[in-house]
Each structure stands twice: as C-alpha cells, then as structure tokens.
Amino acid sequence: MCCAGFARAQHKSVKDTLQLDSVIIKESRLKHLPNVSGTNIFAGKKTFDIFLDAGKANLANNNARMTFAKIPGVNIWEMDGAGLQLNIGTRGTDTHRSIETNVRQNGYNTNSDMFGYPENHYNVPFQAVSEIQIVRGSAALQFGSQFGGMVNFKLKEGDSTKVLGFESEQSAGSNRFFNSYNAIGGKAGKVSYYAFYSARTGDGWRPDATFNSRAYYASLKYQFNDQGSIAFQFSRSDYRQQIAGGLTDVQFEANNRQSTRARNFFNPEINVPALLFNYRFDKNTRLEVTSHVLFGQRNSVQFINTANIPDTVNTSLKTFNPRQVDRDYYAGFTTEARLLHTYKLGNLSSSFTAGIRYFEETTKRKQKGTGTAASDFDLRLVKDYGIDLRLHTLNYAAFAENMFQLTQAFTVTPGMRFEQINTTTSGVIVNRTVPVSYKDNRNFPLFGTGLQYQFAGGNQLYGNIAQAYRPYIYAAVTPADQLTIIDPNIKDSKGYDADLGYRGHISTVFSFDVNAFYVYYGNRAGTLTQTDANNVTHLYMTNIGNGVAKGIEAFTEVSLIRPFDKSSGSDLRVFNSLSYTHGRYTSGSINQNGKNVSLKDNNLEGTPYWIDRAGLTFLSGHVSSTLQYSYVGKSFSDANNTTFNATGATGIVPAYHLFDWAFNYGFLKNYHLTASVNNLFNAKYFTRRINMYPGPGILPADGRTFNIGFGVKI
C-alpha cells in the first residue's frame, strides 16, 4: 500500500533493540527514510521518520510541539490545547490547518480538498500512530503540490502473533480533560485487522472553550498469497468545539485567559474510506494502488466581529445579534497507482518508480447565512445564505523518478511530474445578488533531481532541488463583495525547494542532520487597489509578489550513558533541533488602507527567524521521560508587516519560550502509567493573530495544564 511500507525496508542497522527485564526498547538511530521503500524513492531527499513514545510526547492530547520536536523548523499554530487540529508549516508556508502541506494517512490524502480548499480538518489521535514520515518540498514530484512537503501518519497494525489483542488508555487532567483510546487487533490465517475508537472531551483552558472529539478507524487486510494483499480501511473524525474568540493586545495583557465570545462553535465531520492493493510480481517489481473517498462537512456558527466589539444583547432587538452560519460539504475521490522496478545498471542495482493519479472533488460552499440569536450550537437559518457556490476540481497527474546507482556510494535521482488541473466555480455571492462563473484549465510539468553520497560508517552527503507549486484556492477567484475584481489571468504560485545537507551518526554516541535550504515562492496571491475608467476604486485579487525563504536546519542528539557503559539498562540523551529562516518578499505590492504599498524586503508573514527545541530524555527498563524546552522567535502576522492594530487582528507575534514534560512507566508487562505537563512554568504567549475564523484577534495559547493516564495492552 502506498507509503504504508516506508519503514518496513529499513535495514536492521537502523534500530538498536535492547532486552531489559521483559521490556523491549526500540530506538531509531537514523532519522531519515531509506533510499527505497515500498514503491517510493527517497535517496537524496530531506526526510525524517518519527517513532512515537508516550515518554517523549503528550500523545493523549495530540501535543504537536513535542511530537514534532526533533524536526527542525516546524512552525506550529497552537489554536487549542486539545490537539483538535494539526496546524504546521515550514520554511515560510502557512500553518493554518496545514494548508500548504500534503497530509496523508497510510499513504492517502486527508486534506479536505487538495486544490480548491486544502485545509486539513481530519484529526487522527496520536495514540493510534506508529510513526510519522516526512519529506520536505522535494515531495512535490512523487506526492503532488505544496511547498510544505509531505507528512504521512502511518497507523498501528494488529499484533500478528495473536488472534485478538486489546489495548486501552484512559487519561484525565486539567479543565475536566478526559481522553479515552481503545483498540483491538490481531491476525487469523490470511486476515489481519486493527480498529480503534477514541474520544476526547474537556472544558478548555479558557472559558467558553469546551470540546467533544471522536475518532474511529477500522482496517481489514487479506493476504491472498505471498505476493499480494488487499485492505479496506475506514476512518472518521468529528468534533464540536466552542470558540472563545480573539483578543486585542490590551485584553491579552490584562487577562490572556478571558473569553470574548460564548456563542461561537466549529464542527467538522470527515469520513475517509480507502481500498489499498499491494502486489509483488517478483523480488524486483511491485505495484501499489490506493483508492479513497473523502466526504464530510465543515460547519461554523459565530458572531463575527473584532475582539473590541462585545457580543452583548442588542437593545433594539432585545436579544443577542443573529450569528453567521457557514457550511461546506466535501465529496472527493482519488486513485493513485505506483510501480517500482529494481534493475541492474552494470553490477549495481538501480530503481525506477512511476505513478499516476486521478482526483475529482466537489465542494458545496454555503456561507454568510443569517442564523438564530441562540447561544448553543444551532445551524438553523432565519435568512438564506448570502454565498452559495459549487466548486469542482478535476486533476490528472503522472510522475517518474529513477535512482541511478552510479557507484556503491553515489546515487543520482532525477524525476519529473506532470499536472493537469481543471477548475470550475459557479453560484451566487453578495446576498445572492451577484452570479459567479469561473473556469480554468491549466497544465504544467515539474522537474527535480537528487544527489547522495554514502560515506563509510553510514554518513551521507545529500542534495536536491525540485519544483513545487500551490494552486490558487477558491477564495482567490471568488469575489468577497461587489468591490472586488478577480484578475482573469491569476496564476498558480510556483517555485522550487533546494537542500544541501550532511547526516549520520558517530558510533552510538552522536546523531546529526544539518542542512542549508533555499525556497523560492513565486506569484503569491493577494489584493491590490485599482481605480477603473469611471474613477471607482476596487480591490483587485491577483498575484502580489515573490518570496524567498532560506536558512539552516540542524538536528543533533548525544547519548551520555549507554555508549560508555554497554551493560547499562539506562541512558540519558540530549537533543537539539534548531532552524534559522530568513524569509523575505523579493518583489511585489499589496493593498494597505486603499493604497498599494511595496512588499520588497518585508518579512514573510508567519515566519520566525529562529525556532529551537531542545530536550533531555531519560530511558530505563520500564521508564522513559522527556523534559523539553521550546523557543520560537517573533514574526509578523501579515505581509504588510503591521506592528500594531487596535483590534489585535494584525501585528507582531512576540517571541516565546516554554517547557513541557512527559513521563511513561511500564509495569507487570501489560500495563503503563503516563503523566504530562504542558507549559510547565505557565508562560504567557500566543502563536497567531488572525483576521478571520475563529477570531479576529490574538488567539492565546494554553497556560499550564497536566494529565495522567493508565493503559493496558494484552
């Protein structure tokens, strides 16, 4: 199955396995994916492979800050402390629901609409994840668009030595937090299976921030012979979250825990059935075909206004103001087929991979409906939607890459991808008074290549350059009002991503991966001010300019005990994950208060110079524990680099630093206890300002919270 086998082909040298008093500890030594795995080629690419451990991250509440700690440069928007959304970005890309990242589960996409609205509303519980596989921007060739690269969550599988296995973990903590994870799995003959149910509830750190989240998953695999298998998987994620609203700077300084909204709610429901076929024709050739459907909806009901305008009873209506209701409905189908063939080039083995993708998706968008004046989650309307659109995308893609093993140590991996995207939009906007009809067909090729040199001892010098793109989303071609005009020649954002790095280890003492990167991001979309022949001023949606993000990413880890005492059942490790990103607009202009202002030399929005995460991990026979420090430098919330706005919607996002702690203790073979403290010293900070949902304003990050858990696996 596509991507699901990434780690299976890892050499035995990748992991050290220690037997300690009936406790097996497996530790990943190499932090990157192998040259060839499944039907994928990773030689020469910047990759990572994370194996999750409750003693190294707070998995019960999906703490991304700890889970991605060893990946340099991951910028995280912390919208809530419950982990209901994954909001990550790298190298100057947008963190908002990972909108510029190709997010996958077991190899298939979970973004709601890969092209028109690529936000990721699907929520997988980290307790169900066995590993996370990451490819930087060079992922565009094998996996599709997005400057943010590819992130694949590989879910757990049932114990193949048992007909029935069971695991359960119950966690409780601050603010009435409760998380329940329960799973069964096993194998009987040629059939293997795994299924889980996860539920997470709580009041939230701020008032008016309650949440109720559920996730379901079932996988049934039939191994019909030694060569092939077919699997059916079904996933569902749904949650209802109360949104406490944004704050102004004055409100944040006075009390960062206060709420400005009590009647705002958000509710996504995403279903993903998938069929995965895997067949090995012989030892050199294998085929993987994945087909999946993504259908569901995204609902919100809220009083939308800046944080300095309270949501109070309207004196003329004698009730609260009616709220705005927005609803999206998604229905998409994707099939990807990949073939990998290994062949002899001289006396050495080289590998060729190729694949095709068919994708079709329809989004029905209904926005700006006038809802009730109630205070609960209520999607009923008293006035029809002001925006009613049908958005359709049809995509065909093909790619090919070849890893040429020129010597025992040196590989060259050129590749290309061809994309065809057909987009249509129809419907009405502006209180249903303005019709919209838009159609565009585009096609373009992407090229790239990777180089890798393997030194004695396993260290590698690697480099790659690959083109990437971001299709303009539906919002870029849908006028917000009658004063907005769409550039009929608006273009997709295009550019490239380049890496040059050195990675490896020195014995069992020191592991490292250090690289320089350069990302060119052309044709970023935005609005300008334009005056027509009748001297009427309009907002003009078009490509506003080009940006560049360049810098250094470095990961290091040192073992302090085990290398010097081979018989020791314990180890103490220190790691540091550091990135420096210099993100700037190199050209362009944007509308600011009715005037077009140059963007040249402005900082890319949401791009801090420095991100540093360091940790101390203790490992013993039954115990693992991590104390982690995080530092994120200041950034700007908009392309104008606004320093202050009285509403809090734009301005500087200050630097912050904080500590987290995670602990796991296993006992009596089948049981374990967990404990975690997020934001150990109660730092006061925020990671994002926003001028749309769910604000506008500052969205405060959670203060100190804790949880404890008890688990069993039999």
From TrEMBL:
It is a multi-pass membrane protein. It comes from the Bacteria. One of its GO terms (biological process) is siderophore-iron import into cell. It is found in: Cell outer membrane. InterPro entries: Beta-barrel_TonB (IPR000531), Beta-barrel_TonB_sf (IPR036942), Plug_dom (IPR012910), Plug_dom_sf (IPR037066), TonB-dep_rcpt-like (IPR039426). Residues 61-147 form the TonB-dependent receptor plug domain. GO terms for cellular component: cell outer membrane. Belongs to the TonB-dependent receptor family. This is Fe(3+) dicitrate transport protein. It comes from Mucilaginibacter gossypii.
